[in-house]
Amino acid sequence: MENYDLVVIGSGVGLNVLNTGLQIGMKCALVENTKMGGTCLTRGCIPSKVLVYPADLIRESQHAQKVGIKFNIENIDWDFIAERMWSQIDESKMIDQGLSTVPNLDVYKGVGEFIGEYEMKVKDSKNGKELGHFKGERFVISSGARSFIPPIQGLESIDYITNENFFGDRFPKKPWKSLIIIGGGVIAAEFAHIFSAMGTEVTIVEMLPRLVITEEPEISQLLEKSFSNHMKVLLNEKAVKAYLKKKQKAILTKNMQTGKEKEILAEEILIAAGRLSNADLLKVENTGVETDDRGWIKINQYLETNKNKIWCIGDANGLYQFRHKANYEAEICTNNIFGPEDQKRSVDYSTVPWAIFTYPQIGHVGMTQAEAINKGYEIYVAMKHYSTVAKGFAMGFETDKIDDGFVKLIVDKSYKILGAHVIGPHAALLVQPFVYLMNSGFTCTLPEYHDKKEIPKVERACPEAGSFMPIYHSMVIHPSLNEVTGWAIGNLKPVNIKMEHHEHHHT
Q1: DSSP string, 115-178
Q2: Residue 167 to residues 8, 9, 41, 119, 205: CA-CA distances in angstroms?
Q3: Which of the listed residues 106, 209, 225, 262 has the most CB atoms within 10 Å of its CB?
Q4: Quick one: CA dihedral 311, 45, 318, 124, positive or negative?
Q5: pLDDT surpassing 80 at residue 463
């Protein structure tokens, strides 16, 4: 039986940790059941953006009428778009080839299962044949996640699409004529944008009362109104049954409030109802690693599981499933595995940003208004629309129109930024400066003598850490969309600020 110094499960962000182990001469193993490169490269954020951008251009060409320009789209070359997308996914082959020549590395292409303490076997996912049996001194679980398939009666008897097989053997030769999307989150919103722009008749079926539930209610509302111009959006509707009808695929929905049923027909069905942990496939319970009630692997602030020398990073721990968050964790995990024990670093998720590349685009960092209030903060809230700045008007945005994007800021009573939320053109770019601001005023320089525990971020803060004051004291380029976010602080209004009353005594 082979014994390894380091075993990494998953070839996405796990490669970041693996590289360090190899560089210092460790004997390593990599376990991967799908294409090399992980979700982001092969079936997620990178190939999807190659499809999103052409869809953006189509919507922008339609929006151009608002500034006096009319475009006619003569042709959508789906084959060329697909070719560009596959060129990115195929970088997986180069990763695979490169890993095959690395000294001190064994690559197991199959499903890993823990069969005992720090012991694993790998099976071929197709025929169940055992490909390897080994032990490891250290394990890093970066096994990602897969699509959650909701319990819809009859779904197992018909073919359907997930993000996994879409970027695989079920990629369409041309856009479908009609498409039902089950779900209303990030993946659903991006696919709805892509295919509605390409001419597909899209119907979204979401059992919750609004789309993109992680966002501010006002953002969900604007997105729903915008979507409704190009597709059908069914909220509070639960998909309960799937079947074939008239050479099409059908979904029977049930209204969550009234119980009324409705039938929807389409050429294809896409399931985008959330993500599911892969911990069950790994059988982590056999090595003592704990999971939560939803199956995600539990970690502490050092990315350690409850089992000594087993770490978990990326989607596998269920926290903020974005590649940039996984990269951040990989850096900290690498430090904590290979660095001195008394210099371990802890994670801080208070400023995890993300974007939803739908149309209109959405950018997010920090807390929503409801989250801030629930956590006991006394807050100010500011909103400012694109139409209220010169550049926004120049781009064709008008007050009270459904496409008039905005920024919403959440600020506590000491002017510390708690959250920033943007919907509209360049939202991902406009929200990013707030990420920097929320991390400013903190120093990573520790005192020369300190105990083994890392000094918490808040205890290393200067008085204005994370404040909006740098914006207040800065010039903002005019006219630019930066004014939407930069000038929003002028609209701050108290939400639950407790005003202090002073008694006045007259003599």
Answers
A1: EETTEEEEE-TTT--EEEEEEES-EEE---EEE-----BTGGGS--B-HHHHTTTT--SS--SE
A2: 24, 22, 10, 33, 22
A3: 106
A4: negative
A5: no
- The whole-number pLDDT of residue 458 equals 59
**DSSP-H helix ranges across 44-104:** 45-63, 78-89, 91-99
Q: Which residue, 104, 133, 132, 138, is CA-closest to 118?
A: 138
The more confidently predicted of residues 446 and 69 is 69
CA dihedral 273, 181, 222, 419 (to 10 degrees): 20
The C-alpha atoms of residue 266 and residue 176 are separated, in whole angstroms, by 9
For the stretch 466-503, pLDDT in tens is 777 787 777 878 888 888 988 888 888 999 988 665 45
Confidence of residue 124 (pLDDT cuts 50, 70, 90): very high
- Residue 170: count of CB within 10 angstroms of its CB: 14
DSSP 351: T
Q: What is the pLDDT of residue 449?
A: 47
Domains in the chain: ranges and CATH? 2-147+276-343 (3.50.50.60), 155-273 (3.50.50.60), 360-494 (3.30.390.30)
Query: What would the two tokens of residue 319 be?
Result: 């926290």
The closest of 44, 15, 116 to 331, measured between CA atoms, is 15
d(CA 193, CA 275): 20
For β-strands 145-147 and 275-277, DSSP reports them as antiparallel
Query: Letter for the amino acid at 296?
Result: W
Sort 458 into a burial class: Cβ within 10 Å, 0-12 / 13-18 / 19+: exposed
The backbone torsions φ and ψ at residue 67, rounded to the nearest 5 degrees and listed phi first, read -115, 15
* Cβ-based neighbours of 83, under 8 Å, separated by 6 or more: none
User: Per the structure block, which two tokens stand in for 373?
Assistant: 């209030």
Mode of pairing for the β-strands spanning 201-206 and 232-235: parallel
Paired tokens of 304: 């350690």
Q: 461: which DSSP letter?
A: B
- The pTM of the full predicted model, rounded to 2 decimals, is 0.91
Is there a contact between 123 and 111 (Cβ–Cβ < 8 Å)?
A: yes
Q: Which residue has the tokens 């929200």?
A: 431
